[in-house]
Amino acid sequence: DAAEKGGYEHYMRKEIHEQPESLRQTLAGRLDVSAGDVDLDVSFPPGFLADLEEIRIVACGTSYYAGRYAAQLFEELAGVRATVEIASEYEFGAGRTPDRTLVVAVTQSGETADTLGAVRRANAAGARTFAVTNTLGSTVTREVDGTAFIRAGPEIGVAATKTFASQVATLAMLAVAVGRDRGALAAADARSVLKDLQGLPGAVQQVLDEEAQVREAAREYGDGEAFFFVGRALGVPVALEGALKLKEISYDHAEGFAAGELKHGPLALVTPDTPVLAVLTDGARADETMNNVTEAQTRGAPALGCVSAGDTYDTLDVSFEVPNVGVAEPLVANVYLQLFAYHVANDKGRAIDKPRNLAKSVTVE
Ligand code: G6P
Hints:
Layout (H helix, E strand, L loop, with lengths): L10 H7 L1 H9 L3 E2 L4 E2 L15 E6 L1 H18 L2 E6 L14 E7 L5 H13 L2 E6 L5 H5 L2 E4 L12 H20 L5 H12 L1 H9 L2 H11 L4 E6 L3 H16 L2 E6 L17 E5 L5 H13 L4 E6 L9 E5 L6 H19 L18
Parallel strand pairs: 3-4, 3-5, 5-6, 6-7, 8-9, 8-10, 10-11, 11-12
Antiparallel strand pairs: 1-2
Helix pairs in contact: 2-6, 2-8, 3-6, 3-10, 6-7, 8-12, 9-12, 10-12
C-alpha cells in the first residue's frame, strides 16, 4: 500500500500531484496547434455536427461540474447551445429534435448507474450519445455511439481530482473539434485555445510547487464554521467543485455558488468565521467577482483568491497565483482548491481516501 502511494500519505495527494503527467497523457498526440485543430479519433455521421441544435451533458458529482465547465466552452468555441443535467434528473424533454441533439455522458468510471440511466433514456428517445470516460471497456462505452477517453490513469482516492482535470481538458478539445468542424471557430482562435491547453501541465506544476503556501492557508483558515466558494462564468463550476471537495473529505460545511448570488441569500451566513474562496482568473470575470468578495469582506469574512499572474487584488487575505493560460485558468485554480481541501482535511485527521458514507463508483440509482 505504502509503495503504491509512491511516498505520499494518501492517494488523493498523490493523484493531485500526478496532474501534470495525467494532463500530458490526456493531450498527447491530440493537438495540432499550428493547424488549429484537434484529433480525438472520434467521428460523427456526415453533416451531423453542422446541423447540431444542442449538446446536452449528463453526469453526476465532480463529473457534473466538469460538464458545467465544458458547456460554457461548447457555447463559446463550438457555437452550439449546450446544457448540463444532473444525470438522475435527466429526461429527453420537450421541444428537442433527437437527431439534432448530442447527449454527452461524462463519467470517470463509466459505471455510474444514474449516468447509465440517462444514456439509456437518451438512446430510447433516439438521440445520438457520446461518452467521455477514463475507463476502457466500461459499461458506458458499450451503450453510446462514440467515446473519447480522458487517459488520466487509475484514480484510487474517492474524491475525484486528476480525472476532473482530464475530463475538462478532453471536453475542451472536443469543443474545439466541434467548433472547427462546424466552421464556428476560426483557426487563429482555435490555435490560441490549444496553446493554452498545451500550457496546462506546466501551469498545474507551478501551482503544485506552491503547496507550502496552501498548507499554511489551510492551517490558518481551516477552522472556519463554513466555507463559501465563489466565481463567475468558468469560475462557477470550479467554485462548486472546490466546495464539494472540501465537504467530501473534511466534513466541513462548504457551499459553492455564482458570486453574483452572494447578495441574494448566502450573505446572511457570512461572518468572520466563514472564509470565502474565490476564483479570480481569466475566464471567470474576476473584477466583478472581486466586487462580491468585497461585500463578504465587509461582513468580516476572510477572503482567499486564486488570481491570474500579473493581476493583484490588494485586499485579499491570501492570494494564490495562477499562471496565464486563458480559458484553462479556472481549471488550474482548481488545483489550489484541491490542495486546500486536502490540507484542511489532513489537519483534522480525516479518512481522506475513503470518506465516510461515500463510494468511488455508485452503481445503484
Ligand atoms: C461518486 C464519486 C464521485 C464522482 C461521482 C461520479 O459519487 O464519489 O467522486 O464524481 O460518483 O462518478 P463518475 O465515475 O460517473 O465520474
